[in-house]
């Protein structure tokens, strides 16, 4: 089981020894744990490029439509996001899909996922 030994200070010292059942892994079933490399769910938005003057940065306006909670009327709200565009490929009027990412600058927390086309 375990051995007990008295130290110089009179306190008991307990040493834990492994039992033979713990060392034999053939009897115990092996459990595989699935480890996903996914970084969790990242928010995605679709919007229109309204600015492309900065280097490797575009400004995207995302329109959100919902009904008013009390009156039920349809309401539109717009929000602007600063998005990282590594290749400077997007131009004003492009419809793009953006994804949330780590902070890249003071205001940039989104990156370009893909360009869907031009605004009609």
Protein model, in words:
The protein is elongated and about 85 Å long. It has a five-stranded mixed barrel. Strands 1-2 form a two-stranded antiparallel sheet. The chain has a domain of 75 residues: Beta Barrel (OB fold (Dihydrolipoamide Acetyltransferase, E2P)). The termini are far apart. The mean pLDDT is 82. The chain has 120 residues and is mostly beta strands. Strand 4 and strand 5 form a beta hairpin.
Round the mean pLDDT to the nearest integer and report it: 82
Number of strands: 7
Overall 3D form: elongated
Report the total helices.
1
Q: Give me the secondary-structure category.
A: mainly beta
The CATH first-level class of the domain at 44-118 comes to Mainly Beta
What characterizes the major β-sheet?
5 strands, mixed, barrel
Order of the strands making up the biggest sheet: 3-4-5-7-6
The ordered string of helix (H) and strand (E) elements is EEHEEEEE
Summarize the helices and strands and which ones pair or pack:
Layout: E1 3-6, E2 12-15, H1 20-23, E3 44-51, E4 57-67, E5 74-84, E6 94-100, E7 108-118
Parallel strand pairs: 5-7
Antiparallel strand pairs: 1-2, 3-4, 3-6, 4-5, 6-7
Q: Which short descriptors sum up this protein?
A:
mainly beta, 1 helix, 120 residues, two-stranded antiparallel ribbon
Write a short abstract of this structure:
It is built from one helix and seven strands.
């Amino acid at each position: 089981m375990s051995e007990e030994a008295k130290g110089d200070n009179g306190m008991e010292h307990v040493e834990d020894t492994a039992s033979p059942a713990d060392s034999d892994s053939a009897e115990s079933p092996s459990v595989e744990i699935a480890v996903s490399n996914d970084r969790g769910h990242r928010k995605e938005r679709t919007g229109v490029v309204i600015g492309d003057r900065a280097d490797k940065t575009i400004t995207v306006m995302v329109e959100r439509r919902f009904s008013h909670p009390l009156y039920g009327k349809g309401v539109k709200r717009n929000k602007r996001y600063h998005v990282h565009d590594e290749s400077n490929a997007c131009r004003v009027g492009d419809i793009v899909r953006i994804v949330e990412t780590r902070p890249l600058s003071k205001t940039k927390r989104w990156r370009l996922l893909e360009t869907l086309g031009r605004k009609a």
